[in-house]
Amino acid sequence: MQFGIFTVGDVTPDPTTGRTPTERERIKAMVAIALKAEEVGLDVFATGEHHNPPFVPSSPTTMLGYVAARTERLILSTSTTLITTNDPVKIAEDFAMLQHLADGRVDLMMGRGNTGPVYPWFGKDIREGINLAVENYALLHRLWREDVVNWEGKFRTPLQGFTSTPRPLDGVAPFVWHGSIRSPEIAEQAAYYGDGFFHNNIFWPADHTKRMIELYRNRYAHYGHGTPEQAIVGLGGQVFMRKNSQDAVREFRPYFDVAPVYGHGPSLEDFTAQTPLTVGSPQQVIEKTLAFRDYAGDYQRQLFLMDHAGLPLKTVLEQLDLLGEEVVPVLREEFAKNRPAEVPDAPTHASLLAAARKEREDRQEGARA
């Protein structure tokens, strides 16, 4: 099982000081957070994609390429790649390039984002959001797997004899997660291709998340990729920790109250009671995170949002120390207990390459027979 962090890259004033970081400071802070993630033993760093204030990560592959050069083990991912408004050809080439630079330590998460105005900025119609997601990914999937593509669709010009470059590293496409909070069509899409399904697990109560994951698992089996238990599931979540739970609540409350993602709504107490948000001690974080398995089953990736809502970099790095030293080692041990043997590990470039080689060998053996 993989553990890591994801960021939305918001530039938010610190409500305790009134100071707003500059865009440069926030971008540099995100890099520092990624480097810290590797230092404390996490597996994954994922960045969002936004094209509007108050967010800064408009070019995820630029940031991830820079982080790749400064890390050795960390898997570099996105917490949203806008499959609706990005050109599939550009996605195919950008992430294949990143694959080569990072020696395969790359995957990505497709999503539609949560900013409606982004559609006309890139010449798209928000009313076609689901259709764009379906058509664009169908093309991207082919671009990574076919050396020469002839294609025609509704939303972009046709391709004739087109080869995206560079080709995926070792002939193996980056693993794709499809992220959605509420759209069953996206769970269906993930299942159809045998890709992963990621639920950000921040806003919604457990019963909603359970229904989405069960839909994906059942449809994954329907399309012949394996049993429902073998489907590839990822979850998000947000935590804020201090050694003493009362200190955590007191320190985090002013940040929660103005947070762009969930501020100005239910109280901190109501939100933590009804959603996966955990504010408390490391032990409380461990207990609540382990409970995710009760409704998600045995899953492959757990990412935490740590740097939202104006939290200063120093505080976020302290959070990562607690996560790496006191929380994740226990989660690794506990999640491994009683994990059925047929439940697969989280995909990596090495495991995908090994599977591709075995498939080729099986085909060759079948041809000889």
From TrEMBL:
List GO molecular-function terms, semicolon-separated: oxidoreductase activity
Task: Spell out the protein name for this chain.
Answer: LLM class flavin-dependent oxidoreductase
What is the native source organism of this protein? Streptomyces plicatus
- UniProt-listed PANTHER family: BLR5498 PROTEIN, LUCIFERASE-LIKE MONOOXYGENASE
Keyword set for this entry?
Monooxygenase, Oxidoreductase
Q: Where is the composition biased (Basic and acidic residues)?
A: 356-369
Q: Which SUPFAM superfamilies match?
A: Bacterial luciferase-like
Q: Show the segment(s) annotated as Disordered.
A: 339-369
- Name one matching Pfam family: Bac_luciferase
> Which segments constitute the Luciferase-like domain?
1-295
Which EC class does it fall in? Answer: oxidoreductase
E.C. number(s) listed in UniProt: 1.-.-.-
